[in-house]
Specification:
GO terms for molecular function: L-lactate dehydrogenase (NAD+) activity; L-malate dehydrogenase (NAD+) activity. The protein is of the alpha/beta class and about 300 residues long. The protein has 2 domains: about 5-140, Rossmann fold (3-Layer(aba) Sandwich), CATH 3.40.50; about 145-305, Alpha-Beta Complex (L-2-Hydroxyisocaproate Dehydrogenase, Chain A, domain 2). The protein is built from 10 helices and 14 strands. The strands form 4 sheets. A 6-stranded parallel β-sheet has the order 3-2-1-4-5-6, with helices on both faces. The chain has a 3-stranded antiparallel β-sheet with strand order 7-10-11, covered by helices on one side. It is globular, with a radius of gyration of 18 Å. Nicotinamide-adenine-dinucleotide (NAD) binds near residues 33, 34, 78, 143 and 175.
Length: about 300
């Protein structure tokens, strides 16, 4: 059991904190936000659910980055979400300034932590944080694929009417409109999904998965998704704190894997106590390779905008 810090006590930060606390993954959760009272209020509100959910985690909040000290894992959700009609890349210029400052504070107060980025555009900001911090790539990862895969599995469950607990979906690539839903690796208790659904239904699932974030945003209007993103963060945190060696799609810095000497994108990763312990390289077919390339090109175009 360790101390986990969450930077950004907004909607995603709060949902992640609630799931992490409720499932007793941390001895302590420290929330940090620049908005006066936001982190403190979030911490207290969640603390008051402890008797209901029977957890022991102690929560605290502050505007002072010194609260990060001794954190073993730091989840970064700080930054602005996009508004309806925007792409995730449209918030890059604002969020990179926020992330740079946070990374500098992390290096000052918790340089030994494992960093899990959520703020968008997540692939680009994970890469930026890795570069700026100088940390090994094993300790700088991002959350996207767990959420996108859960969305895809939910859509398979809705289309088939089958139990979502039997469905395993996999989404790789960048967390943008050109993400790569991997139908070939999507199964229902080991049975390929195309045994249950025709080509049209599968195409509907791919399209809906790619637009999953935008669909929730269009409905909520004033906020992008946070319940499923918070749960996805908690699943990655759990894999690390319990050293379970789970294979989860994660944003990873690529250094030759999938033929990319540099960049960051969602690939299957083994997560354990050291953070990213291994990248699993799949044999992609021609169409998957083309989708992967297209997705990486859009991430690299955003990385090229950074200076
Ligand atoms: N990777 C994913 O799958 C995924 C999923 C959902 C949301 N997101 C992204 O996560 C980010 C947060 O979304 P949200 O809905 O929680 O937004 P939000 O507006 O509810 O919360 C963001 C919080 O960040 C805080 N903040 C801003 N600058 C800060 C700083 N320098 N230090 C500490 N805190 C700071 C704000 O005060 C605010 O409380 C957005 O960029 C969004 O696009 C990513
Ligand atoms: O869609 C967004 O902007 C938020 C997040 O990336 C999501 O997929 O829900």
């Amino acid at each position: 059991m360790q101390k986990i810090a969450i930077v950004g006590a907004g909607r995603v930060g709060e949902a992640a904190a609630q799931f992490i606390a409720q499932n007793d993954m941390a001895r302590e959760i420290a929330m940090l936000d620049v908005r006066e009272g936001a982190a403190e209020g979030c911490a207290l509100d969640i603390q008051e659910t402890a008797p209901l959910f029977k957890f022991d985690t102690r929560l605290s909040g502050s505007t002072d980055p010194a609260i990060l000290r001794d954190a073993g894992i730091i989840v970064v959700t700080a930054g602005i979400p996009r508004k309806p009609g925007m792409s995730r890349s449209d918030v890059l210029d604002t969020n990179v300034r926020i992330i740079d400052e946070i990374v500098d504070n992390i290096m000052r107060y918790a340089p030994d932590a494992i960093l899990l980025f959520v703020s968008n555009p997540v692939d680009v900001l994970t890469w930026r944080a890795w570069k700026r911090s100088g940390l090994p790539r094993e300790r700088v990862i991002g959350q996207a694929g767990v959420l996108d895969s859960s969305r895809m599995a939910a859509f398979v469950a809705l289309e088939t009417g089958l139990c979502s607990c039997d469905i395993n979906a996999m989404v790789l690539g960048g967390h943008g409109d050109s993400m790569v839903p991997m139908l070939r690796y999507t199964t229902i208790n080991g049975i390929p999904v195309d045994k249950f659904l025709d080509a049209q239904a599968l195409e509907r699932i791919v399209t809906r998965t790619r637009g999953g974030g935008a669909e929730v945003l269009a409905l909520r209007k004033n906020s992008s998704a946070y319940d499923a993103p918070g749960a996805a963060v908690a699943q990655m945190v759990e894999a690390i704190v319990t050293d379970r060696k789970r294979v989860l799609p994660s944003v990873a810095i690529l250094q030759g894997e999938y033929s990319y000497p540099d960049g960051a994108m969602g690939v299957p990763c083994v997560l354990g106590k050291n953070g990213l312990e291994r990248i699993v390289e799949l044999d992609l077919n021609a169409s998957e390779t083309a989708m992967f390339k297209h997705s990486m090109e859009s991430v690299l175009a955003d990385i090229a905008r950074l200076h």
